[in-house]
Amino acid sequence: MALRNIVLDGDPILRKKCKPVEEVNNKVRQILDDMAETMYDSENGAGLAASQVGILKRLVVIDMGSGLLKLVNPEIISEEGTQKVIEGCLSFPGQYGKLIRPQKVKVKALNEDGEPIILEGEGDLAKCFCHEIDHLNGVVFVDKVTEWIHA
Length: 151
What we know:
The protein is of the alpha+beta class and 151 residues long. The protein is built from 2 helices and 8 strands. The protein has one domain (12-149): Peptide Deformylase (Alpha-Beta Complex).
C-alpha cells in the first residue's frame, strides 16, 4: 500500500466526472487499498473518492467507525427523507458548512471482488455515501452549502 496525495480545492480534476471501472482486478484493488491508507492517514477522514487522489475512476472508500467499505461503481438507487448536516472534506481543509442530505439511502455497487452488493445507510452513513458519490460526479460539498460554519 502507498499513501496518495489528496487533491485540494482549485484542482480541476475535482470537477470532472469519473469513469466506470470496467473490470475489478488487482490494479483496482491496489488503488482501493492506497485510498484506504490515505484516508486513515488523514485527520478526520471518513471517506475518500478516487478523484480526490487524482484518479478519474468510480471508486470510493468509507469508514464511519464500523469497518472499511470499498465500493466500485457505486450509485444511489433510492433515498428517503431529509436531514440537516454539517460537512467538511479532505480536499477542502478547514472549510465546513451546513447542507441538506437524504436521511436514508440505498446504494448499489461492486465490492473489491467484483461482486454486486447493496448497502443501506442512514444518518451519517447516508451523508457520507452522498458526499463521496457526488465526488464521482464532479460535485463537491461546497456547491450545496446553505450556511458556512466559521471555526
